[in-house]
Amino acid sequence: MTKLEIGDKQFSMVGQPFRIVAGAIHYFRVVPEYWRDRLQKLKACGFNTVETYVAWNMHEPKEGVFHFEGMADLVRFIETAQELGLFVIVRPSPYICAEWEFGGLPAWLLRYPDIRLRCADPVFLQKVDAYYDVLIPKLIPLLSTNGGTVIALQIENEYGSYGNDKAYLEHLRQGLIARGVDVPLFTSDGPTDSMLQGGTLPDVLATVNFGSKPEEMFEKFKEYRPTEPLVCMEYWNGWFDHWTEKHHTRDADDVADVLDRMLNLGASVNFYMFHGGTNFGFYNGANYGDAYEPTITSYDYDAPLSESGDITPKFHAVRQILAKHMDIGECELPEPIAKKQYGLVRLTEKADLFSNLPQLSTPLTSTYPVPMEQVGQDFGFILYSTNVTGPRLNMQLHLQDVHDRAIVFVDGSYLGTVERWAPQSLKLDIPVGGAKLDILVENMGRVNYGPKLKDSKGITEGVRLNGQFLFDWTISPLPLDNVSSLQFLPFKDTPNENPAFYKGSIEIEEIADTFIRLDGWKKGVVWVNGFNLGRYWERGPQKTLYVPGPLLRKGSNEIIVFELHDVINPEIMLVDTPDLG
């Protein structure tokens, strides 16, 4: 039996001092075919441990329906790490943040309108317990105490940044123990008084998260835990991007310097991230500070491995520091994964959204608009339609609390766009005979951090013309989880401001990674062979979408682009170099 032991200011394993040198790789952000490649590179850089969150919404997408296959095969990911001689730290907290949709919480929780998240609310605890009854037994055989490679589990994630409910933390702790977890448990928080007071338990290992000033950060930690090992559970060596921002980067020498100083203090460290990967599909999260800020599709994070798994200068700078402090062996790297420029692809077919509503949605009626969670929908888009009597001149259309971006049509013609982060009204004239109003709302990712975590999507309050609420709506959920039923017609080069799907194909003989450039497109989503790559937006910073080679096949490959606005020339480029702005 191997067990990580917590001693006076240091860890030990099998009687010998042990320092955790870990890097974060999220299995749910990497296609399974590349897990071994990324883990091999982690080991080659000198790390002895991989750390991963567990995304609840990946594993219980519908209440009571569990999923542990494909990109959700957590067990296979951990077993692959063990085959390579890596230890594993698992963070199965109900909440993970991670810039991931809803911080990993499943959207169906919001169907319970009175639920209180991340506290000892009986309804929330009941849902967590039901999930843990399925998840934790899968982890028990993988614990180091049972011959596996998992050496520690997290109780909750940065809880002191959110709350201070010790009964909730203790419930999670006891739940892990009762289900058979006998490796060390820990918490992780920012190194401030309020966070360390709110997020820790007195007899549970505490760790801290930061990106710089290690001496100062650990001094604050030692005020609370003077005899515990020093652990930076999240060393933020890069950062993530929101739409409309510049791509974040950090100098490799600065990252190496901070690491060197941490190791000189005797600390253990976990790089957040070692390899970021991709927010495929609709799984990107969002922040809410002064306003709503959705995260981009790429989770490159300016990490030691790029989004597509390539070694960066930061990799070499980090390895050099690790070699200074410990024996890390030779740098045995796997063969590089090929990148290929396949060139221009013209999308020759088109399917108008409104014409294809019967193929995509089963509508329902409601007196008033309701959020998508209340109609059983998690992701994608939702369409609200009503008929308005006329005449009404010089009216102002108000979408009261729209989450997150709405495109408005009157009698099928584009009126304007309303965005959550810049609320506005639209001027509207209704003719004598009345008009049909269609409002297409995009869920751009639920808030994943902070007090505004409870983030329902769609129109959450109502729609007004001046001060009058409009009632009697038809609601069409558009999760877009399957676009195979769309009815395409040959594309005609005519102006069109309505949302539409565009389809084309490319013949491929040699499979390799590639990147889709969408120059000239406005905003939307891309599928390759039915796999949702994620969102694009002309506002950037991201200009390409990553296509892992395993998503392609020899022969014909289908590409579908859902464009929310219009495109003059429906062409894309498959290039061999990413552009993150």
UniProtKB/TrEMBL annotation:
InterPro entries: B-gal_1-like, BetaGal1-like_ABD1, BetaGal_gal-bd, Galactose-bd-like_sf, GH, Gly_Hdrlase_35_cat, Glycoside_Hdrlase_35. Keywords: Glycosidase, Hydrolase. It comes from the Bacteria. SUPFAM superfamilies: (Trans)glycosidases, Galactose-binding domain-like. Residues 11-323 form the Glycoside hydrolase 35 catalytic domain. Residues 499-557 form the Beta-galactosidase galactose-binding domain. Residues 369-478 form the Beta-galactosidase 1-like first all-beta domain. One of its GO terms (molecular function) is beta-galactosidase activity. Its EC number is 3.2.1.23. The keyword Nucleotide-binding does not apply. Belongs to the glycosyl hydrolase 35 family. This is Beta-galactosidase.
